[in-house]
Amino acid sequence: MSVPDVSIVVPVYNTMPYLTQCLNSLVEQTIGRERLQIVAVDDGSTDRSGAELDRFAQRYPELFTVIHQANSGGPAGPCNRALDVATGRYVFFVGADDHLGPDALRRLVAAADTYGSDVVLGRVVGVNSRHIYQDIFARDEPDLDLFDSPLPRSLANTKLFRRELLERHAIRYPEDMRIGSDLPFTLEACYRAGRISVLADYDYYFAVRRFSATNITYLSRHLDRLRTAETIVAFVAKLIEPGPRRDAVLLRRFDHEVARLLEDDFLLLDRALQAQLHEGVGRLVADHLSEDIAAELGAETRIRMAVARDGGLDDLLAVIRQDARRGAPGTLVEDGRWYARYPGFRDPGRGLPDSCFEVTAHPDWAARLDATGLDWETDERGRRVLTITARTPVADLSALGLDRIAVSAEEVPAEVKVVGSDETGTTVRISFAAAELVAATAATGRRRIVSSQAGEFDATRALGAVSATGAAGAMAVRAPALRHPKPLVLRRGARFFALTCTVEGSGRLMISVVPLTPQRVSAQVRRILRRRRAG
Predict the structure, then answer these.
(1) Which strands form 124-127's sheet, in the order they lie side by side?
(2) Domain range holding 308?
(3) Per the domain annotation, does 533 fall within a domain?
(4) Whether the predicted pLDDT of 311 surpasses 60
């Protein structure tokens, strides 16, 4: 019996009706069924997922291996069980609610064979406005450096892995992690790999955000996320020796997993849980956040983490409350140093060091924009535009060696005009053309983070810090507690799109562009009817 080129691993738990599209996308791969093995593990599903797997196995008995087991509480166990029976030269992991482009596996295997790659990433796109970082997919990269690239922020397991590498190093998923178990698995595989390649020439993987958002990652609780962050940081510290390479990986962990624990929704938790998170994050920061890593974080994230380490729970709450309810505080300029005047700054009753609040080496502080107004308008050229009025806490950008603030929704730029300034900051007016947002959006729909960047750095000053977002002086525009305009429906060709402003728990402003398909409209109608019945 010939060895298949790829063993596709599909962990399954209650993913109907998405599972059907997923499985169809696998059996229809252009690489040919004779080169594939599909190992699907039903992790105690209570919907029709198990029956659907059996239906496909009966139809394609030479292709499918289906394993049914009691629920294990997460995808780690099913993935490990599948790895134990996989026989392909390569292994590819697919979420049971996601699907592949028809030519994905043929292209991935060809690239791995051509380049001698142990890990290959194909471009991932989001469906139903699921956000996927795209910086890793800027171009094809036959030989990517884990530590000098955006890869540490793209460590999901949706990649092609050489199975011999996994077996040689006994790389498996940690089954004590309910969520996030793919990160240490993928990190170790990339760390051990002789070559990592990136393919940006095709839509390989479609990552689906369910309309109901019911998978365990979406529903994970704060304590689960704290334990996950602790486990991941400890894993990185054990795997990689101290120094710049470890810092490159830990930077992303602090900027993502740890930072998420201190987002604006922290204010909504009960005090006992807040205390647990404060203690846990403070310990992580004290033990693992080096000065070099902290210098690369955005100012807002670094300040919250410093206060979690050096201050009490009430100090941390005061800082988060300032951002979430009142916007960025004023900026003190003193002896060439810049300080964010959050509650607790130079309060003798608090005893927090000035270093917690210093933003001198963080040009993203100048780009910190708090939206004070959002609306759809018609501009002087007759275009429908999203107009955002926002303020930065810096009154004089030139004092920081900057001459402008640029704003974009990822690759879609906005027009920005300074409309006024005073001793407390600068007000800008931001305009996004609705047609440009739609034109740049895939048919599957997409959410874009609105971010700002303070431009034109003076190279003679020590202000050129590169933030964890990968752009000098860049940070997300915030819009907490702000009235959102109603969605705008726009036609492009024969299709209609809905444009919506949303704010995440972090306070980040995002713009969603969603194609209005019959299925999506039906799902929205059902949600409205459920809310009415519940009310």
Answers:
(1) 99-100, 205-208, 124-127
(2) 221-360
(3) no
(4) yes
DSSP labels for 143-194?
Answer: S--TTSSSGGG---S-SEEEHHHHHHTT----TT-SS-THHHHHHHHHHH-S
Q: Are residues 413 and 314 in the same domain?
A: no
**What pLDDT, in 10s, does the model give residues 351-402?**
999 999 999 877 788 888 999 999 999 999 999 999 999 998 888 777 665 6
* Same domain? 391 vs 352: no
Q: How many Å is the Cα radius of gyration of the chain? A: 24
For the record, the structure tokens of 518 come out as 């019959």
Same domain, 273 and 333: yes
Contact between 157 and 93 under an 8 Å Cβ cutoff? The reply is yes
Contact (CB, 8 A) for 303 and 328: no
Look at residues 213, 232, 261 and tell me which one is the last residue of a structural domain.
213
CA angle 464, 469, 470 (to 5 degrees): 55
Q: Where are the beta strands (DSSP E) in 335-414?
A: 337-340, 370-378, 384-392, 404-409, 412-413
% of residues, the chain, pLDDT over 90:
71
pTM of the model: 0.83
Give the Cα separation of 230 and 209 in Å (integer).
Answer: 26
396/298 same-domain check: no
Question: Is the domain of 491 the same as that of 386?
Answer: yes
Whether the upstream peptide bond of residue 150 has omega within 30° of 0, thus cis, is: no
CA separation for the pair 388, 398 (Å, rounded): 23
In whole angstroms, what separates CA 141 from the centre of its chain? 21
The CATH number that applies at residue 93 is: 3.90.550.10
Report the mean per-residue pLDDT for the chain.
Answer: 88
pLDDT given for residue 505 in this prediction = 73
398 and 490 share one domain: yes
